[in-house]
Specification:
40% helix, alpha+beta, 5 helices, 21% strand, single chain, 4-stranded antiparallel sheet, 3-stranded antiparallel sheet, globular
Length: 146
């Protein structure tokens, strides 16, 4: 599946399949806490192939990978949208993995932000929202020392 044909080319070996996990009465207190912290689940093994100006990277996501969705501050959700917006799920999954494992993209913070932006646009977010989210993520990462 081709996600992006722009400056950064992003393809996958299969179609992503992700879902939201739901807290049920049968869950323990610990399970409820864990689901609240990382409510999104990757349901299929998938590899993202990224070509960024001749540099190639592979990002593998095993079935069962968990993440928290797009980290959008509550006060900005009325402008950007909810953290679980389907247009944000794949980009946030990929970005979270790059933040967890900097070495997968050569410890390149700026590249992680650009990949995030390209995926947002490829997944249907408007260019305006993608640019706002890109700038927010890139500046936040800079302040956090990455």
């Amino acid at each position: 599946m081709i996600f992006s044909k722009g400056e950064i080319k992003i393809t996958t070996d299969t179609v992503p399949f992700v879902c939201a996990r739901t807290i049920l009465p049968i869950h323990t207190k610990e399970e409820k806490k864990e689901i609240s912290k990382k409510p999104y689940l990757n349901k299929r093994n998938i590899t993202f192939f990224i070509d960024a100006g001749g540099e190639e990277y592979l990002l593998f996501f095993p079935e069962g990978y968990l993440w928290d969705g797009a980290s959008i501050p509550f006060g900005f959700r009325w402008i950007i949208g909810a953290k679980g917006n389907p247009k944000f799920l794949i980009p946030s999954m990929v970005h979270d993995k790059m933040c967890e494992c900097h070495y997968l993209i050569g410890n390149n913070r700026n590249l992680s932000s650009k990949i995030f932006k390209e995926l947002l646009i490829a997944c249907g977010a408007s260019k305006l929202k993608a640019n706002i989210m890109y700038l927010a993520v890139d500046n936040f990462q800079r302040t956090q020392g990455w």
